[in-house]
Amino acid sequence: MQSSSPSSPSSPSSLSLPSWLRSNIGKASEISRVQKIIKQRNIHTICEEGKCPNRGECYSKGTATFLLMGDICTRNCAFCQVDKGQSPRVLDENEPQKVAEAVKLLGLRYVVLTSVARDDLPDGGASWFVKVMKVVRMLNPDTLIEVLTPDFGTGKNALQQQRESIKTIVEANPACYNHNLETVERLQNPVRRGAKYDRSLRVLATVKELNPNIPTKSGLMLGLGETQEEIITTLKDLREIECDRITIGQYLRPSLEHLPVQKYWTPEEFEELGKIAQSLGFNHVRSGALVRSSYHAGE
Predict the structure, then answer these.
(1) How do residues 198-240 score in pLDDT, each as one tens digit?
(2) How many angstroms separate the CA atoms of 168 and 126, rounded?
(3) Angle at 30 between CA 29 and CA 33, to 5 degrees
């Protein structure tokens, strides 16, 4: 039987955190080193802004996922810890150089660049992604760059603008183009306010249309009221548009202001879903409770 829609953000969650949801804290010295590099340059990571449970482990390995264009998002997704608002930060002209320097200091061979949604910008920030990519490559010519972008799908002439924004980034030839569906089609409205399932699928389909050689990737978080059947349908929809890579992880409620967890999926269930994803043809699958979109991305 299909699960009901998620409860409202104010509803209490009666589920207790299971024993398998314990993240690797990481070495304090390495965590401090990464945080110092980030804070000194006044740049942002989704690791910190999104309160990622793996940030200790990733920092201890000298990695981070950079959050571009400030720390205020113009969307209001009900699962996300990043601050929301309609008056986002003025773009920092020095951000490309500061991110590139941080990549060099951390010795990153593979870096993920993501951003807040910037619906206030004409191209949604696509040209800014490219600007940062160019400077990162200048200082780090051997570093591969994965992008994790918004959907670029709002405003006037949305379809045309979305395609042009995606084209701008595709022409910069990232090592991987990532855009997360986050959840199944039925739950898009309560979970991803302002986003649409078809619009997100169109992002990944457009990348493949423009350059079939660029690997595409998406991510799902479980525990919001979805069923296994709906998850499998979503995986099939992604394979229909030739999405190459998938991450599947457990949603963890950031605060009482966010959607409560409806279910904690077990390690066995994540393993089963991973096998199903592989059988559908994804060539890179990570499925586990603490898996996140950029987790071990360079591998």
Answers:
(1) 999 999 999 999 999 999 999 999 999 999 999 999 999 999 9
(2) 6
(3) 90
Q: How far is CA 62 from CA 32, 43, 198, in A?
A: 10, 16, 36
List of domains in the chain: 28-217 (3.20.20.70)
- Phi (first) and psi of residue 83, to 5 degrees: -60, 145
Plot region of 108 (φ>0 → left; ψ -120 to 50 → alpha; else → beta): beta
186 contacts 199 by C-beta, under 8 angstroms: no
Q: Which of 162, 163, 294, 181 is nearest to 237 (CA)?
A: 181
Distance separating alpha carbons of residues 283 and 273, to the nearest angstrom: 14
Q: Nearest Cα to 283, choosing from 233, 246, 235?
A: 246
CA atoms within 13 A on the CB side of 221: 22
The reported pTM is: 0.87
- 240 Ramachandran zone, left/alpha/beta (phi>0; psi -120 to 50): alpha
